[in-house]
Specification:
It is a single chain. The chain is mostly helical. It is 77% helix and 0% strand. It has 3 helices and no strands. The longest helix is centred in the first third of the chain and has 26 residues. It is elongated.
Length: 56
């Protein structure tokens, strides 16, 4: 594959792939299941681990 062919592919389908991937990844967090996971990840630092609770 030549540089020109690779460059043409990246300019056309690469941009489409990155745009679709971005929309999917951002939209994933607005699903009910994704929203719950996002909330759990955001508040994870405020929870105590079971191992920490046992030791002190």
């Amino acid at each position: 594959m030549t540089y020109d062919a690779l460059r043409h592919f990246a300019d056309s389908w690469g941009l489409v792939f990155m745009g679709v991937s971005y929309i999917i990844l951002v939209g994933w967090h607005f699903l009910p299941r994704g929203r719950r996971h996002s909330r759990d990840a955001a508040t994870m630092i405020f929870r105590k681990d079971e191992t920490e609770a046992d030791h002190g």
